[in-house]
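Example record for the data management plan.
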Amino acid sequence: MSNHNLKTDVLIIGSGIAGLSLALKLAHKRNVIVLAKSSLSEGSTMYAQGGIAAVLDPFDSVEAHISDTLNAGAGLCDPQAVRYVAENASKSIEELIALGVPFSPAENSQADYPFHLTQEGGHSHRRVIHAADHTGQSVLSTLIDQVKQHPNIKLLPNHMTVNLITNDDKTRCVGAYVLNKQSRNIYSIQAPFTILATGGASKAYLYTSNPDTSTGDGIAMAWRAGCRVGNMEFNQFHPTCLFHPKDRSFLISEAVRGEGGILRLPNGDAFMTKYDERADLAPRDIVARAIDQEMKIHGIDCVFLDITHKPKAFLESHFPTIYGRCKKLGIDISKEPIPVVPAAHYTCGGIVTNLKGETDLAGLYAIGETAFTGLHGANRLASNSLLEGLVFAEAARQSIESTSIENLAMPEQIPAWDSSRVSEARERILVAHDWDELRRVMWDYVGIVRTDKRLKRAAQRIRNLQNEIDEFYYQHTLDSDLLELRNLVLVSQLMVTSAQKRKESRGLHYNLDYPKTKSRSKPTILKPPKRKNQVN
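Corresponding structural encoding:
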């Protein structure tokens, strides 16, 4: 046990758009520690290509953004949350512009707005501001430059959070136990305010557009600490990820279809008009299911996204990352279509919060993809994800700054992490095997199309895996692989339980045994069982 125990005003777990923007906002008045379990830049924000939705065009309206979000959410959005985000969107964009994020300029100098706005599936207007096709990377690098310069922000990359720490009566979060991945020491960080900005859980699936960090850590830790989760059955599958044997899943942005890309079968036939009148601009769940259906009907490994009718110069300027990545693999997207398949992309559910980012546990906040705010409902509208992180970072700032630290009852001392009864694992095969089995079970049984039988089978397999992983966790020295697997198997179980409770098909949840959508429905909220207080 290291004596390297820390205290701070604010502990932020996660270094994506939500975590870093909140750190910058709070650091003027508070001391802040930001944890990243890998490098500061490794997370889903880095790989977000498309952009950020906001009403910026004078011909667009907040009401239209609200309407589009509600339509995509298939009747399960919280209208209050949708309105809150839509109304605060443009202010969030202005803050990023002021920080110096290099958004793409308007192509016409006479345009009504100085930056280029694109349109994506489900949007009725051009309202997606972007930095070419690497928006997340541009925003994140700007934020990282800013936080590195701030004297009140301490950055701890390569630190994996083990568990949240609560007070004796389990009503308040007072910090977290943290694993230093290099020294392998576990120590505590005490804080009156802890923020989970840990991203989603798409790594639960065999095929995903997400980086390796998306293992549902925040959701699992909050559940273990006593917080409710909501809508975990709604995992969004991005319809178009690059299908290539020499490359890991690489996202082909929604904006390619927004700029005229057409999905085709290997023989060149376009097929989206069979599934939706909006054709290739239909929301993601419809497009993903359509591709899945066509692949099953024709027994093919992928479909093709064709944007060859656009000039090469247009493609190089609008999609430089996609153009370059495909070119390296021998695919010239100006001359040939891009092979694509659906892949797990975004966790629409998460830790239940209010419109201030507050969870069920005092002092604990959740913002960004790890949270369930009610914004996304049964399906997320394209480019509302980075936006949600920004808007709720500001909401959390307001809540935290309005609370006086001096009046909070904090423990004098945090119990030391007990590692006296564990030993070094002799072999790692169990972790590697269970990791692989879990992701295959989720892909095969809890994927784009589900049945009761598949869900029941998944629940049985996951229960067995949980027992194995828990036993391994309590007996052996911890490392990040084991911690991620422990979190991911728990979140997978929550996904399956939620899916079993929903006896209808709606949005991203499609069950062949219940193909119809009920006339009235509500979010799936799960409440954790009461637990005895324990250190680990």
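Summary line stored alongside the record: The chain has 14 helices and 20 strands.
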